[in-house]
Amino acid sequence: MQALAQAEASTEASTEASTEVEQNALFRDAMSQFPSGVTIVTTIDSNGTWWGFTASSFCSLSLDPRLVLACLATTANCYDAFARATHWAIHIIHTDQTDVAMKFASKGADKFDGLAWESNGHGVPLLPDAAVTLECEAENVYPGGDHVILVGRVTQTVLGEKSAAVYFRRGFHSLG
Description:
Elements: H1 2-32, E1 36-37, E2 39-44, E3 50-55, E4 58-62, E5 67-73, H2 79-84, E6 87-92, H3 98-105, E7 118-119, E8 125-126, E9 132-144, E10 147-159, E11 165-168, E12 171-174
């Protein structure tokens, strides 16, 4: 009787694990159905090294004060730099910059190679010709599961001439 109970418990645990894996896959697929803008977030660390990542988890948070948020995986190579950063920039890309977004979404690449980056007064790298650039002062960092939520106070807003790209169903799209 005890062996039967152990077998049932083992089967139940296996089903729950399978269901968890399936639910994670379904959740990921569901999130790909939500169109979002694409951003490249950049900063500089105390050693003068530039860091950046691509984020589609970005939104405005408040108008007064001007706050935005972006989410970063705690496993990202740049996590420590952003967790300690005092300033960063968020660049909303346009469709001509999707290759840059893909580069910043990868690990190990020399992400800043190949473009003539500029930097602001804090040394934060600025992506030339972005659809929008938001220069930010770090406001807060909050835990959020396997990510952190970076909240920045917008100190400078620059509007570019091109329309922003949209990410939908695992692909880049143009609205214009």
